[in-house]
Amino acid sequence: MFCPQCGQQQINGIIRFCSRCGFPLDGVIQLLANGGSLPAYRSPDEPVPMSPRKKGVKQGGLLLLSGAVIVPILAMFASFSSFVLPQMLAILAAIICFIGGPLRMFYAAVFEEGAPKPVRLYGPPAPMPMPPQFAPHAQHNALPPPPVRSQPSWRARPNTAELANPPSVTENTTRLLEKEDRTER
Fold first, then answer.
1. Helices 52-80 and 85-111, interaxial angle, to 10°?
2. Confidence (pTM)
3. Nearest 5°: phi and psi at 24?
4. Which of 48, 54, 58, 88 has the fewest CB atoms below 10 angstroms from its CB?
């Protein structure tokens, strides 16, 4: 991957800033990972649609709980009636609600599609797989190559070898000893 601002080739595809100019590369990485299209972000106050899995589990739970209300009511009507129809309705309601409700929840939990992965609104981007044509090269240099534009040359550095070397430590110590000898006499 190359920096869009200065053209510097980046060492790997997961760095966040250009090593030469400091340009933020988060958006470039996301563009490359999505095939050149920007990812769709949703606002935090936008309602999240319910997934089919969650909807199915909710339907099964409502069916099971409604059976706890409907079956006793139908059983009371069946006990006061001498006909077979209310008894059959109570039995059918019990089968549908108490067996169908948990079966609906199980089917939704196992076979229906869950919620899509949330889109990150803020923070560092998640590492995204790079397509093979944008994969980093095997060669890793310790330093980036020199810039494309040559820098203006400054004055030549002075040659410090022509300066006099400082005196050694022994010379200073010898001078101090000579001063002491003179003062004692």
1. 170
2. 0.42
3. -70, 125
4. 48
**Which residue carries 């998640």 as its tokens?**
126
8 Å CB contact between 14 and 5: no
